[in-house]
Design goal:
The chain has 269 residues and is an alpha/beta fold. It has two domains: 202 residues, Rossmann fold, CATH 3.40.50.150; 55 residues, Helicase, Ruva Protein, domain 3 (Orthogonal Bundle). 40% of the residues lie in helices and 19% in strands. The chain has eleven helices and nine strands. It has a seven-stranded mixed beta sheet with strand order 4-3-2-5-6-9-7, with helices on both faces. It has a two-stranded antiparallel sheet with strand order 1-8. Helix 4 links the parallel strand 3 and strand 4. Helix 6 packs across helix 8 and helix 8 runs antiparallel to helix 9. The longest helix is centred in the middle third of the chain and has 14 residues. It is elongated, with a radius of gyration of 20 Å.
């Protein structure tokens, strides 16, 4: 595993510095790196997607565990470092991991070739939510996700009804999978240190969720929560839908459980 000194040297040798606009905070705590790989249950031969490899600290750990790694790196400087260190031991995709619709990019889909894979990554903060939701909702070939993300996002993913963190990503995570918080990661584990605390989460999809069209359900929930403080009766009317029998029209979306929201979606479809 790369040490903090080695990470600094890799960048200094090329005359570059971490780019704040790309959320480049390099994880150098070896215990946290081991936890991430262990939480992913990475075994020899596993196909792993890593987004934002940076200097390749986690990448090298995954390769050493025997994984076949597809890396997506937006920053050409970082891509050059990873390629120089790992070469043909990985598949490197240069460019954004998301397309304009905020879905997994065609280049990554081509590299994965429809095979079962896992996400194991220290995710750039701006890409975390759309990427994780795309994998959960639209990519049945994704067999699990282990991601280092902002603690705030982790709280939203795991939130239950009634709290301010509860929202569409909470509902989708609860209905389409299960989430486990692996560890909390303080700023000092990174260089440069971010201003927020991070967390490692593991999401395991539920193949038996029974939702015929997860994407349509996600769109429905997203529309409900777009005006989360409005009463459901008014929100459904705005959507051109009638409240089903038994629904309290004065209730608000944040008061309904994930299952109740699915029942409402089915009743109004």
């Amino acid at each position: 595993m790369q040490t903090l000194t080695e990470i600094r040297q890799l960048l200094a040798a090329r005359g570059i510095r971490p780019k704040h606009r790309l959320g480049q905070n390099f994880l150098h705590d070896h215990n946290q790196l081991r936890r991430i790989v262990a939480a992913g249950s990475v075994a020899p031969g596993d196909l792993v997607l890593e987004v934002g490899p940076g200097t390749g600290t986690l990448t090298e750990t995954l390769v050493d565990a025997g994984a076949e790694v597809v890396c997506s790196e937006l920053d050409e400087d970082m891509a050059a470092i990873v390629e120089s260190r790992l070469g043909d031991r990985i598949t490197l995709v240069r460019g954004d991991c998301l397309d304009r619709a905020r879905h997994l990019s065609p280049a990554i889909l081509d590299a994965l070739a429809g095979r079962p894979f896992k996400l194991v990554a220290n995710l750039p903060y701006q890409a975390a939510t759309p990427l994780m939701m795309d994998l959960l909702v639209r990519r049945p070939s994704c067999r699990g996700q282990v991601a280092l993300i902002q603690k705030e996002v982790a709280d939203r993913l795991a939130a239950g009804p009634g709290g301010r963190e509860y929202g569409p990503i909470s509902v989708l995570t609860a209905m389409l999978g299960s989430i486990e918080r692996v560890s909390t990661v303080p700023p000092g584990c990174f260089w440069p240190a971010p201003k927020v605390t991070s967390a490692v989460v593991s999401i395991t999809p539920r193949p038996d969720h029974g939702i015929a069209d997860p994407e349509a359900f996600g769109d429905f929930v997203g529309e409900l929560f777009r005006t989360r403080r409005k009463q459901l009766g008014a929100t459904l009317a705005r959507m051109g839908l009638s409240p089903p029998e038994g629904l309290d029209p004065t209730a608000r979306p944040e008061s309904l459980s994930p299952q109740a929201l699915l029942d409402l979606h089915l009743a109004t479809s």
